[in-house]
Design brief:
This protein is mostly helical. It is built from 22 helices and no strands. The longest helix is centred in the middle third of the chain and has 18 residues. It is elongated and about 95 Å long. About 45% of the residues are buried.
């Protein structure tokens, strides 16, 4: 009875959005269970699992991700003692653990947990389709954040279809799933489709919430992102600027969304050529993100990347190199080597070094980039481009054999992937002829 009393007191605090007090009650309930004998613990196994999960979510709400991870793993271990009886609970805990990893920026771990959860749901014909669709949509969103759009799209499409079938059209979950699908389409270049989905999601959200509600901001944000992609920069900036005061009035709960708004506002300023305003916005974003995120979080890497590119655009290549190198260090710790954001920063560093005629440094970045791209798709246009750049660097260093080899690689791949007569092929051929003239004296 004492454990139940403590647990329900914690739930009451949770409902009143008092995570610190809820944490205290859940912790006391957990300690009370752990002081019991083995027989009593077995009798309270279900309550033990429930308390573990509640305390873990409480820690997660306070962004204490390591603490919540340990509790979710302990809950999972307890449930797996009776896997057949606890299939639904195991799938739910895997989902919760995945969202914890997602929030802490550990995207690959999150994807693995979502996949295990999907397998658990698939093995049980009695699974609630809405809970299955929630895992689908969340996994799809995680894949979007990992730039795995082709994998994300079918999950999001199916998840949205299930939610539309099982829920009223104006339900908030329908709107949120449509927003995520819109983002995936936007990132895949289907901007018109993304715009339609963003407008539909925004329309549904407005039917449930007032315009100045903090939760409406993510829908306006996606609408602004689509406006930016279609070149309507002034409209996008206006939408974002309307949302910033709403998020500032809801701090600290809204600090993640506020940082996303600042990041997107910086992108709009950059697209308009307003690099000073973009830099100032990203500097504010970086300070804010560093105040609550771990130092190797992908969002910090994204802000550093944007800030470094802005420095480069303004001609401050020294500052750009320093910031982009820091960005690379962050991304090396938190992303898979083939992640597009990882390769982007290598490209930028290589281009800056080449511009400064630091050809050996440029080679260092380009060779690393080439190794990563070759591991993903050795016959892609990106690989042809990087071999071309490597060849030019070797040529500038008068290392003619190495230049010849790199340019021949670029020519072989380029001929296979580019249309006949493409300027990129003829450019590589011209540089290769220069190498041969110097090498053979003709």
């Amino acid at each position: 009875r004492r454990v139940e009393s403590l647990y329900f007191m914690g739930k009451a605090c949770e409902l009143h959005v008092n995570p610190q007090e809820a944490q205290m009650y859940f912790s006391n309930a957990l300690q009370a269970i752990k002081r019991c004998g083995q027989h009593e613990k077995r009798a309270m196994a279900h309550m033990y699992s429930v308390v573990l999960g509640s305390l873990a979510r409480c820690y997660e709400d306070q962004e204490m991700f390591r603490e919540s991870e340990g509790l979710f793993l302990e809950q999972l271990s307890l449930l797996k003692e009776k896997p057949q009886e606890n299939r639904h609970e195991i799938a739910t805990t895997l989902h919760n653990l995945a969202t914890n990893y997602f929030s802490s920026g550990e995207l690959q771990k999150a994807i693995e947990m979502f996949e295990q959860g999907m397998e658990m749901w698939a093995s049980d014909s009695s699974s609630d389709p809405l809970r299955v669709s929630t895992t689908m949509v969340c996994m799809g969103w995680c894949l979007v954040q990992s730039c795995q759009y082709e994998r994300a799209l079918p999950l999001l499409l199916k998840g949205v279809a299930i939610k539309k079938e099982c829920l009223p059209y104006e339900h908030f979950d329908v709107a949120n799933s449509l927003r995520m699908l819109s983002t995936c389409c936007e990132m895949m270049g289907e901007v018109n489709k993304a715009m339609r989905l963003a407008e539909e999601a925004h329309f549904i959200a407005l039917s449930r919430l007032p315009r100045n509600h903090a939760d409406i901001v993510v829908f306006v944000q996606q609408l602004a992102a689509c406006k930016r992609k279609t070149g309507n920069l002034d409209e996008a900036i206006q939408l974002i600027q309307q949302c910033i005061p709403i998020q500032k009035s809801n701090l600290p709960a809204s600090r993640r969304n506020l940082c996303t708004l600042l990041n997107n506002l910086g992108l709009c300023y950059q697209d308009k050529g307003m690099f000073r305003e973009a830099m100032r916005t990203w500097e504010d974003c970086l300070v804010a993100r560093r105040s609550f995120l771990p130092p190797d979080h992908p969002d910090i890497g994204d802000t550093l990347f944007n800030l470094g590119k802005a420095c480069e655009k303004r001609g401050d290549v020294v500052a750009a190199t320093k910031i982009l190198t820091e960005c690379l260090s962050v991304r090396e710790r938190c992303l898979q080597p083939h992640h597009p954001h990882f390769t982007d920063v290598l490209k930028e560093l290589g281009e800056i070094a080449f511009t400064k005629e630091q050809y050996e440094v440029a080679l260092q970045w380009d060779r690393k980039l080439c190794d990563i791209l070759m591991a993903v798709n050795p016959k892609s246009s990106d690989v042809a481009t990087v071999w071309h750049n490597i060849g030019i660097c070797y040529h500038a260093l008068s290392q003619l054999n190495e230049a010849e080899y790199a340019l021949l690689q670029a020519l072989e791949i380029g001929t296979a992937v580019y249309p006949a007569g493409d300027d990129r092929i003829s450019t590589t051929e011209r540089v290769l002829h220069l190498v041969w003239q110097q090498k053979f004296g003709q």
